[in-house]
Amino acid sequence: MARMTMIQAIRSAMDNSMERDDNVVVFGEDVGYFGGVFRCTEGLQKKYGPQRCFDSPINESGIIGSAIGMATYGVRPCVEIQFADYVFPGFDQLSQEAARIRYRSNNDFTVPMVVRMPTGGGIFGGQTHSQSPEALFAHISGLKTVIPSNPYDAKGLLISAIEDDDPVIFLEPKRLYNGPFDGHHDRPVTPWSKHDLGDVPEGHYTVPLGKAAIRREGEDVTVLAYGTMVYVAEAAAQEAGVDAEIIDLRTILPLDMETIEASVKKTGRCVVVHEATKTCGFGAELMAVVMEGCFYHLEAPIIRVTGYDTPYPHAHEWDYFPGPKRVGDALKKVMENA
Amino acid sequence: MARMTMIQAIRSAMDNSMERDDNVVVFGEDVGYFGGVFRCTEGLQKKYGPQRCFDSPINESGIIGSAIGMATYGVRPCVEIQFADYVFPGFDQLSQEAARIRYRSNNDFTVPMVVRMPTGGGIFGGQTHSQSPEALFAHISGLKTVIPSNPYDAKGLLISAIEDDDPVIFLEPKRLYNGPFDGHHDRPVTPWSKHDLGDVPEGHYTVPLGKAAIRREGEDVTVLAYGTMVYVAEAAAQEAGVDAEIIDLRTILPLDMETIEASVKKTGRCVVVHEATKTCGFGAELMAVVMEGCFYHLEAPIIRVTGYDTPYPHAHEWDYFPGPKRVGDALKKVMENA
Amino acid sequence: MSDHEPLSLYVPEPEFRPGDEPDFSNVSIPEAGSVRRPDIDVKAEDIHDLAYSIIRVMNRKQEAVGPWADLLNDEQVQAGLEDMMRVRAFDARMQMAQRQGKTSFYMQALGEEAIACAFAKVLEPGDMNFPTYRQQGLLLSSDYPMVDMINQIYSNKADPLMGRQLPIMYSSKKHGFFTVSGNLATQFIQGVGWAMASAIKGDTKIATSWIGDGSTAESDFHSALVFASTYRAPVVLNIVNNQWAISTFQGIARGKAATFAARGLGFGIPSLRVDGNDYLAVYAVSKWAADRARKGLGPTLIEHVTYRAGAHSTSDDPSAYRPKQESDAWPLGDPIERLKNYLIKRGAWSEARHVQAKEMIETQVAEANREAVKNGTLHDGPHVSARTMFDDVYKEMPPHLRRQRQEAGV
Amino acid sequence: MSDHEPLSLYVPEPEFRPGDEPDFSNVSIPEAGSVRRPDIDVKAEDIHDLAYSIIRVMNRKQEAVGPWADLLNDEQVQAGLEDMMRVRAFDARMQMAQRQGKTSFYMQALGEEAIACAFAKVLEPGDMNFPTYRQQGLLLSSDYPMVDMINQIYSNKADPLMGRQLPIMYSSKKHGFFTVSGNLATQFIQGVGWAMASAIKGDTKIATSWIGDGSTAESDFHSALVFASTYRAPVVLNIVNNQWAISTFQGIARGKAATFAARGLGFGIPSLRVDGNDYLAVYAVSKWAADRARKGLGPTLIEHVTYRAGAHSTSDDPSAYRPKQESDAWPLGDPIERLKNYLIKRGAWSEARHVQAKEMIETQVAEANREAVKNGTLHDGPHVSARTMFDDVYKEMPPHLRRQRQEAGV
Ligand SMILES: Cc1ncc(C[n+]2csc(CCOP(=O)(O)OP(=O)(O)O)c2C)c(N)n1
Ligand SMILES: Cc1ncc(C[n+]2csc(CCOP(=O)(O)OP(=O)(O)O)c2C)c(N)n1
Ligand SMILES: [Mg+2]
Ligand SMILES: [Mg+2]
Question: Could you give the domains of chain D?
Answer without folding.
Answer: 44-244+257-309+330-379 (3.40.50.970), 386-410 (no CATH)
